[in-house]
């Protein structure tokens, strides 16, 4: 009977029958993308921070310098491997590799979060390193000049600015992850793309199902973009500032608006 | 100058970047209340010397005694020392992610471990002093150069340092803004703040400082009271350098 329907009727039919499956799939996709981007950012920040620890040949002990060099080499390998191979292969590699080589049986979900997180981490590490380096070195000197340690300067001055610098890249990664979780269907994660494959396999409605899935993916990425843009604007703060009346300094009242 | 109130004693200070020798043998003392002006041609090593005193550069030789303790020793707690010997930069280096008020509070809270209320009070007090208390909610990018530098001075003062180092604090400013910053610095000098000022403002060096150091080629070529240096310079190099500023 579905063969007698026109395009829109088929879409309607599919939605009536499998609408909740699509939504659940979209939920799964969004969940994996959001959580993994978050964890990936944390990994990226940690790696980026370690990679930008300064070494002072005179002051630092050789032990510290060698340790740091080894850690940095390992991190380089991590970044290159996960940026240089397709995530679909990484997913298979980790899901099956963990059980065969290390005898650790990861669930599909664990593998999914793991793969997307460390993949994002590898990309974010480079962004974070770039973000840290692109902060004017004078900011670090200004912080040191009032007695801050390297860690204090990083936490209070450099990283907040680096974070703002790379917020667009974080957004990019989130959007990429929303799309790229589709490859996780190779390890049978029931994400949006998996639902599409199942539905179109059952009904032979590849075009119609793909249309639905396209619209859902696009909706998710557009909303994400918009929200991220709002966040960026919020971080940049107001273009105006309140000029405070000197007389009222004690009470902090009586503000007037200044335009700049 | 007596010897008991010596804050900083710089002896045989050397600094090279690889094979490039920038400071050769720098010797001088700073006493409580001194306003030391450091003048000299571009590239003579003035900034490098100031940065060595603040440990932003690691000296390659000699010693810097701060109340008798050699701070070039790698075991010295550099951040704690810097909290006592502040620095004001040519390019302000205000924290771009903070407002004017936060700039002046950050060091007090994170380094001096003061309470927020205490830090705010102190910050406002010093911002008022430099005439910037109306701008506490502004971000650095919303200020003019002169305003930024005055905030940077307030930020340094809020740490209540024993010595304040200035590296050409007015060189990045438009001419009409130089005055407002020099005014603040003059007031600080009059109040007895100990200052080391690298400057190309010869009028400031001549009228405000208690001691003038002329540097050339990584060495102190001549030093003395402003009267001596500007009135009757002994070295030919000093005369030659000062002749470029005839109109002060
Ligand atoms: N990080 C560095 N690496 C290598 N050389 C440096 C470094 N910093 C400064 N120098 C060199 O040291 C010399 C002195 O520089 P410095 O900035 O101390 O001079 P200055 O007297 O402050 O000059 P100006 O009046 O132009 O500021 C210059 O030849 C400069 O190239
Ligand atoms: Mg200089």
List the helices and strands and how they pair.
The complex is a heterodimer of chains A (260) and B (248).
Chain A: H1 7-51, H2 62-83, H3 87-101, H4 108-133, H5 137-145, H6 150-180, H7 192-203, H8 206-236, E1 241-244, E2 255-258
Antiparallel strand pairs in A: 1-2
Chain B: E1 6-17, E2 20-31, E3 35-40, H1 46-53, E4 61-66, E5 69-70, H2 78-84, E6 85-88, H3 100-110, H4 116-129, H5 145-158, E7 163-167, H6 175-190, E8 194-198, H7 202-207, E9 211-216, E10 219-224, H8 226-231, H9 236-243
Parallel strand pairs in B: 3-8, 3-9, 6-7, 7-8
Antiparallel strand pairs in B: 1-2, 1-4, 4-5, 9-10
The site of magnesium ion has 4 residues of chain B, from helix 1.
Give structural attributes.
heterodimer; A: 260 residues; mainly alpha; two-stranded antiparallel ribbon; 2 strands; 73% helix; 3% strand; disordered C terminus; B: 248 residues; alpha/beta; 6-stranded mixed β-sheet; 4-stranded antiparallel β-sheet; 9 helices; 10 strands; 36% helix; globular; binds adenosine-5'-triphosphate; binds magnesium ion
Poorly predicted runs of 5 or more residues of chain A: 250-260
Helix content of chain A: over 70%
Specify the helix fraction band of chain B. Answer: 25-40%
Distance between the termini of chain B: 28 Å
Count of DSSP strands of chain A: 2
**Class from helix and strand fractions of chain A:** mainly alpha
C-alpha geometry of chain A: flat
In terms of per-residue confidence, which ranges of chain B show pLDDT below 50 for 5 or more consecutive residues? none
